[in-house]
Amino acid sequence: MSDEQTLQSLRKALEVSPENVPLRFHLAEVLTQLRHYVEAEQELRHALTFEPDAVNLKLALAECFMNQNKQSEALVLVESLAKMSEPPPAAQVLYARLLLRAGDENGAAFQYRAAIETSPELQDEALSEELGVHPASDWSSENESNADEWKQREPAGDSPAPASNEIEWETPGVTFEDVGGMDEIKEAIRMKIIHPLTHPEIYEAYGKKVGGGILLYGPPGCGKTHLARATAGEVHAKFMSIGIHDVLDMWIGNSEKQLHDLFEQARRNAPCVMFFDEVDALGASRSDMKTSGGRHLINQFLSEMDGVNASNDGLLILAATNAPWHLDAAFRRPGRFDRVLFVPPPDLPARSSISQILLAGKPVEKLDTHLIAKKTDGFSGADLKAMVDIAIEEKLNEAMREGIPKPLTTKELIKAAKQVKPSTKEWFGSAKNYALFSNQGGAYDDILDYLKLK
């Protein structure tokens, strides 16, 4: 029987029994062997709607993605498989190949070694040579001492005392009026942070303390940092913006101490807003870590948020991330980041409002921000700012030539918008796969709702 006849037979069988997952999986295998990867992907996605937790389907789909050079989609699937209590060795080998493609040789070696220790038959000679990893049976007493050379190491010995970690306070002059759109998110922040400070007696009557944490996530450039700063401005609180460089230190123990000092500084100045940008860099999933240093820092972070040795009354914690799936799950427990808010790209009214804010105080003529908003679907706040900057640069060039400054027009802004590529599309490409295949407990239902996949 020819390949085409085999495909026709399988498809006819599926017409009679469309929910037959093993049959659909076999069709996908045949399509993959014939390098019909797009069709194989469609069949595997269809099969997963019937058995969403099937490991063999996810692994086959990940391989299909890899064969199409869809690196991020493949990584999403194999990451979820590798995090299982007993990860499938075949998934770990595939994970190793993907990590190697991405340039992470240490991570690839870690996954590959774990796989062949469990299933030596999965050893690939070329991959073993490239990573310098071989089954335990191949190790000799001479190279055992070098077996862990690829693992990440930490500085040891007496570490110098960390420098003073005092951060300059900021009292933001922006409020929610300066943030376009996001009405539902603003209301959630009001209930969690603002109202407890402005109406403490009502919250005390219900036994609710002032404080707590909110995690903001979504595509970059959509206003998470601006929203956090406006939150502090709403309650006239001090604002502490904390980056990775304010916490991480090369010496063992110093990162935890610096984080503790920052929390103590905030507690002394309560009420205040602590804002952690790119929090996943400080609180990455402990299951992904190869060294204990990162785990100690996360444990310290969780302890500080719980207020184990000090009161966190009046301490308001906001954090932002573009990759919530990399954040340790313990941060989402009650009392920590117990409100997780999706910050999507601005909708049409929000884009109109943001355009008005960006153009305030600038020379404009017959401005139709509603039309601009219609022409900028998918734009983030940062994309809209780039549009305005491009239009202004064109006007400046014109003014320098003619010696007379002229106002911006709607037509010129729309022309500038055509030069800006929406930056949110790439993020949604990865986020969609996490929402579809790693959505434990409905954590990313907001993404599915936004993409209209529910």
Radius of gyration: 26 Å
Side by side, the strands of the main sheet go 2-3-4-1-5
Shape: globular
Total E-strand runs: 7
Q: Could you spell the SSE succession in H and E letters? A: HHHHHHHHHHHEHEHEHEEHEHHEHHH
Second-tier CATH architecture of the largest domain: 3-Layer(aba) Sandwich
Distance between the termini: 41 Å
Q: What percentage of amino acids are in beta strands?
A: 5-15%
The biggest beta sheet, please?
5 strands, parallel
If you consult CATH, what is the topology of the largest domain? Rossmann fold
CATH superfamily of the largest domain: P-loop containing nucleotide triphosphate hydrolases
CATH C-level class of the largest domain is Alpha Beta
Report the average pLDDT across residues: 83
Helix content: 40-55%
Domain count, please report it: 3
Instruction: Count the DSSP helices.
Output: 20
Classification by helices and strands = alpha/beta
The low-pLDDT segments are 137-159
